[in-house]
Amino acid sequence: MSDIVLVLNAGSSSVKFALIDLASNTQPLSGLAECLGTAEASISWKVLDALGKEEKQTEALPENGLHNDAIEKLVAIINENNLSDTIKVVGHRVVHGGEQFIESVLIDENVINAIQDNNKLAPLHNPANLQGIVAAYHYFPTLKQVAVFDTAFHQSLPPKAYLYALPYSLYENEGIRRYGFHGTSHSYVATQAKQWLEENKQSSSHLITAHLGNGCSICAIKDGKSVDTSMGFTPLAGICMGTRSGDIDPGLFNFLINELAYTPKSIETLLNKESGLLGISQLSNDCRALEKAKSEGNQQAQLALDIFCYHIAKTIASFTVPLGKLDALIFTGGIGENSAYIRSQVVKLLAIFSLELSEEENLNKRFGEQGCISVSDGAKVLVIPTNEELVIAQDSYRLLCGEQI
Ligand code: AMP
Fold first, then answer.
1. Does ligand 1 have an atom closer than 6 angstroms to the CB of 338?
2. From the CB of 65, is ligand 1 less than 6 Å away?
3. What does the mean pLDDT of the chain come to?
4. 224 C-alpha to center of ligand 1: Å?
5. Active centre residues (catalytic)
6. pLDDT tens per residue across span 206-260
7. Domain carrying residue 144
């Protein structure tokens, strides 16, 4: 084994981790610590054995255990499996890089301070990312560390796409603007799509990527650069998601406060945790569960899925404005990679672009299979599984070797 990168994705109550062997494109170890800060804090992991088999194990972490406890246990697992010496660099997913970071960087004190400065822009995520960085420094003091930002890919947006029609001073003084998220995923699938399109002698410069998972965002990509994206100042903006509302009328805030006695905190919970597919269906935020309920005649599930597809299609159509033309539409994320139903509904709503799906290919390209699902002559429709961990590993290794990103 060689060139192994430890990838850490520290969320508010979880740490996702993977050791990625770039030479063999395998993951000798991967797992997730979750429910951190609660009595149920636990860690699950899989180790790849010499025969290529994986065995999943789960262990409780100390009650109310936090990121540090998770990483301490991770270090023990790494040592037990004699993997410690193989790790060359640690790569961290960092949600908010503000305007400072337009690409991945080697972490030093200045970078840590800058990430900390962005805490107010991403209060749920950046402090957790920093805890991951601090813990990794503690347990791997000799290793270089790299930050890969969710926002960096969207720093190419032009002002007309990133500015809100608010007093300009709010942008200048407070940094209030569209930042966009899921950048690592959009950039990865766009690169993969370009490769497929070029191999198949198709134009590849005008792409729209739809990352549809629990969080959802759409991105318009021209000549490899993000030119518009649906998430905004926060990951709450844009299309309807699992539990997030996406765009709503900002006038609603006053109504909720004045007429319904909501507080800023309860509005945050309403829009982040109780809305989206869950809010409309009153059943689940899980697309699989909703498709099943819809097929059994559940009207609310049908309505939630209809609204979801409508938002996606409307945003995709609007993103042909900055592009001027469409070479390919790319689906990714848990829903985009696996739901033939959502893909076919979205494409039907985009009839104006004369897209047509192959029913057979739409069913074939699920559960990790990638490729083209359209039969029409014009823009292609592709399914490409995302791989944010791989991008983090690749960027980290390149920076370790002193290469430009
Ligand atoms: P992610 O956040 O990318 O892991 O995606 C999670 C979402 O993908 C959930 O809404 C799942 O229900 C959805 N998903 C996963 N597999 C399928 C499937 N086979 N059909 C429909 N949705 C799926």
1. yes
2. no
3. 96
4. 27
5. 150
6. 999 999 999 999 999 999 999 999 999 999 999 999 999 999 999 999 999 999 9
7. 4-149
Residue 235 exposed, middle or buried by CB count within 10 Å (0-12, 13-18, 19+): buried
Which pTM value belongs to this model? 0.95
Instruction: Pick the last residue of a domain from 149, 184, 219.
Output: 149
The answer on pLDDT for 1 being more than 90 is: no
Q: Which residues contact 11 (CB under 8 A, 6 or more apart)?
A: 125, 128
Domain count, the chain: 2
pLDDT digits (tens, 9 = 90+) for 194-204: 999 999 999 99
In a domain, 163, yes or no: no
Helix axes 299-318, 287-295, angle to 10 degrees: 120
In a domain, 405, yes or no: no
The answer to whether the CB of 276 is under 6 A from ligand 1 is no
- Whether residue 82 is found in the same domain as residue 212: no
pLDDT given for residue 335 in this prediction: 98
Q: How many Å lie between the centroid of ligand 1 and the Cα of residue 201?
A: 32
